[in-house]
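Note to self: keep these together.
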Amino acid sequence: MTTNVRITRRATFAAAHILCRDDWSDEKNREVFGACTTDHGHNYVIEVTVGGGLDPETGMVVNLKHVDGVLRREFIEAVDHRHLNRDVDFMRGVIPTAENVALAAFHRLEAHLKPARLLKVRIVETENNSAEVNAE
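Structure:
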């Protein structure tokens, strides 16, 4: 019997953003996005969950140093201390909600975590607000 195991790596980054649509009036943007229609920032937490079978030699699904390296190289270096709307190429034209940031992180990380499989990315924007993307 093969048992799959999940592990989660947590990291943090700080980024600014604005939630708005250019094709909407200021009034409609404020109605939908509230105070988030002006420049502001968050100290985000990202949690990356990977899974797979255990390597019999190491007892690990994947080395967490590898997960951490991929997370930093493929995502955090691109977003940390940046403005998500203006400074991050893969977020251009995307409203940087927590949901869209989680989705972007999932897509950026998915191909780089072998032999493990990316199962979930969770973005915590505030203590009251988080979003997660799960593998299908």
